[in-house]
What does this fold into?
Amino acid sequence: MNPTPLLALATSLALACGSLLAQSTQSFAVAQAAAPLKVLRYAFPIAETGFDPAQISDLYSRTVAANIFEAPLTYDYLARPAKVKPQTAQALPDITDDGKRFVFHIRPGIYFADDPAFKGPDGRQVRRELTAADYVYSLKRHYDPKYKSPSLFQLENAKVLGLSELRRKTIADKAPFPYDTEVEGLRALGRYSFEVRLAQPSPRFYYLFAEGSVMGAVAREVIEAYPDQAMAHPVGTGPFRLVDWKRSAKIVLERNPNYRDDPYDEVPPAGDKDGAAIAAQLQGRKLPLVDRVEISIIEEVQPRWLTFLNGEHDLVDRLPNEFASVAIPNNQLAPNLARRGIRMERVPLVDATFFYFGMENPVVGGYTPEKVALRRALALAYDVPREIATVRRGQSVPAQAMVPPMLSGYDPALKTEMSDVDLPRAKALLDQFGYVDRDGDGWRDQPDGKPLVLEYSSQPDQLSRQLQEVVKKSFDPLGVKVEFKLAKWPEQLKASRAGKLMMWGVAWGGVNPDGQYYLDLLYGPNKGQANHARFDLPALNALFEKQAVMPDGPEREAVMRQAKLLAVAYMPYKVTGHRIATDLMHSQVQGYKRHPFVRDWWRYVDVEVKP
It folds into this structure.
């Protein structure tokens, strides 16, 4: 192998990084001379995977990416219920052709953060303006087989004309993805406008374009200048830019010097006193309000909590459940914390916690009566009240189906066996379908006589260990043996996408007001993406496709209800609850208010610099 190209690439990357760090150091020195820096410090409880919108799916990587990359739309930070508004777009999209054509008009004068990849005709570095072509390119990257985009299902379900066919041809030809090939469903109409055409109506499709961590614009020059470095070299138009990253340890971002003059103009709903006070305090101020964001990765709850108490971090994003009784007794802020000026923000999350059964696994998967009975028995034996009391510390409510509150498709009157705990019934189900102890070792066997051993994948952190205890205490009395397969989150995620896990306990967070995002977990074609259980039931797939093209209203709600009930009957997922988040912040933090879908909240928060 000739080492020269590799050495040249390494030298190029080193020079680029050196240039970036030099610029960062210089800008920082100037800022320090002018005024003390405003720095927001807090911690993630789980390690990130990277920062490329086409490759990430976990919450924490998406949180960082959403503050670097910008989608055409966003949400009003203070509005409740959630309200979509323009971000890099001039207005909301023009929607025509019965909801099958969407045209976005991008604002001129928006620039990417500086990067050596942006060169003029003379080879010198130049400022790079955002254009419609950047969104066309960024959307196409999700179809590039090279990236295995975990968000592709959202586009393929909407049936963007021509792109899925282009992807399949690329795979068949074993060729690089042809980005310059124009397709009917995605075209730039000029420098600042682009259109998306769908094969079927999709009334809520534009929600996808309010998620910067999925539809944020990347620059083709950057992707091509740093081959296979997109996860580690994010360059966007957002309010922050990455300046330091120690994988699974520390992430540091600074204000993007090229960020436009974007004033705070969020509008709270009538009657929201806290929101009104925030708006009055911050209205008209230039975003972002802080200069720097420093994120530590602290997986264990004790050091994460102590770091906040010691004032080393400005806020706790989701109070660890273990400290609920001392920090928020009876769900009220403890007096000793209040005397220190610490404040509390407590709101229901738009999420679902669950463990899934791998539907292609020979032990727990399948659609025959005995396999369905096994999953339903395990679900009935699982002690949801114990999980909520001992692990969640009361910061969760039982779930009846997959779709959580505050979304279309949620029915507060629905009651199913999803929330039931019924050990006698669970035992009777297993007895009836031949899961009995044949060799007298105290553990049930499969109907064919093979040992029944569950393999439950989990992580080695404290929260996961507590959940493992609930799993074991739920299944032991049932006579079902369970073993735990431990690995770090990124490794489990990779294996789960590949369909290699028998069972795994995770959570799914909402990204927009539409409950379809949770039905995505049940839709067969989404296997390996949202559908980690790899559930594929024709009857449910038909219901999913039916509701996807329907306008919001009672008729669509009825179809979504049928889909949810089918999922309860076949039990590919045991949904355990919908969590409640309590965020705590020191007195220097101003403007914080948790939004159900906004990940790029850093820009709206100020940190007072105390003398």
